[in-house]
């Protein structure tokens, strides 16, 4: 244990835990032995860091959060697994991140991720970087969420769903289909509502890139074509570029099918 680490005498920390430099562990926090906590991370009062947790540097884990809890999966029979949290993550009050199962062996949270209060990340999920999960959103097992996606508060995401890059999902949404990149998703039932223009501009996308993305989705959702026909038209009419390739590859690789278009 690093000499500059500050552990409250009221915390319960297993001496086998690997604690980095300048870590702060508050009163009544609970840290089990098979745990790694990176430099300058703060574990606040009443947080639980359980066996299998691997937490990066410069994170803040707020009160009553539980990291690496047992999966809520009846197929789990006690096999060894982990929950990996990247660097600079903020995990707010009462968040739960379950560790993996035999399916993948680990749950992964990337760098610079914000998990807001009462959100849940189930077993074997993979969340990449710069993601925001809103208050009380529930992410089921083996969901994959790509960079810069935002899932607003109270959303329910079905198991095995894939959410691509730069997506914005409306609060309270029930997500059961794959969400292609750059899109704005909302309404009830959920539907494609346009592209995430505000998010793309914040990320530095040019007007040309945004116009091209918009043209691709007009072809997919507004020309009365089925998915196969629409993808063929996109490939023939839209010049090859990173944005086009990402959209095409995501839709072609979707096993659940993508979210429907708006009927309005």
TrEMBL record:
Protein name listed in UniProt: Acyl-ACP--UDP-N-acetylglucosamine O-acyltransferase
CDD domains xrefs: LbH_UDP-GlcNAc_AT
Signal peptide extent: none
SUPFAM superfamilies linked: Trimeric LpxA-like enzymes
Domain of life: Bacteria
Key word Metal-binding present: no
E.C. code: 2.3.1.129
Domain UDP N-acetylglucosamine O-acyltransferase C-terminal: 178-259
Species whose genome carries this gene: Falsiporphyromonas endometrii
Cross-referenced InterPro entries: Acetyltransf_C (IPR029098), Acetyltransf_C_sf (IPR037157), Hexapep (IPR001451), Lipid_A_LpxA (IPR010137), Trimer_LpxA-like_sf (IPR011004)
UniProt keyword terms in alphabetical order: Acyltransferase, Lipid A biosynthesis, Lipid biosynthesis, Lipid metabolism, Transferase
Biological classification of the source: Bacteria, Pseudomonadati, Bacteroidota, Bacteroidia, Bacteroidales
A molecular function GO annotation: acyl-[acyl-carrier-protein]-UDP-N-acetylglucosamine O-acyltransferase activity
């Amino acid at each position: 244990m690093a000499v500059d680490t500050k552990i409250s005498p009221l915390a319960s920390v297993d001496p086998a835990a690997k604690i980095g430099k300048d870590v702060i562990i508050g009163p009544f926090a609970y840290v089990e032995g098979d745990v790694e906590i990176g430099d300058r991370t703060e574990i606040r009062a009443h947080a639980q860091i359980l066996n299998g947790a691997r937490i990066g540097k410069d994170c803040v884990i707020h009160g009553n959060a539980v990291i690496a809890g047992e999966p809520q999966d009846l197929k789990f029979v006690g096999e060894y697994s982990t929950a990996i949290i990247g660097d600079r993550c903020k995990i707010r009050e009462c968040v739960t991140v379950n560790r993996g199962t035999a399916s993948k062996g680990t749950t992964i949270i990337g760098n610079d991720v914000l998990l807001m209060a009462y959100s849940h990340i189930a077993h074997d999920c993979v969340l990449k970087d710069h993601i925001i999960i809103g208050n009380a959103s529930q992410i089921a097992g083996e969901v994959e969420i790509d960079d810069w996606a935002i899932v607003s508060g109270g959303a329910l995401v079905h198991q095995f769903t894939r959410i691509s890059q730069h997506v914005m999902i409306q609060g309270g949404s029930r997500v059961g289909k794959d969400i292609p990149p750059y899109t704005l998703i909302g309404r009830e039932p959920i539907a494609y509502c346009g592209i995430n223009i505000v998010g793309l501009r914040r990320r530095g996308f040019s007007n040309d890139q945004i116009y091209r993305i918009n043209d691709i989705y007009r072809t997919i959702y507004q020309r009365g074509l089925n998915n196969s026909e629409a993808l063929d038209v996109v490939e023939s009419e839209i010049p090859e570029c990173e944005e086009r390739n990402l959209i095409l590859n995501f839709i072609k690789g979707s096993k659940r099918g993508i979210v429907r278009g708006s009927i309005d």
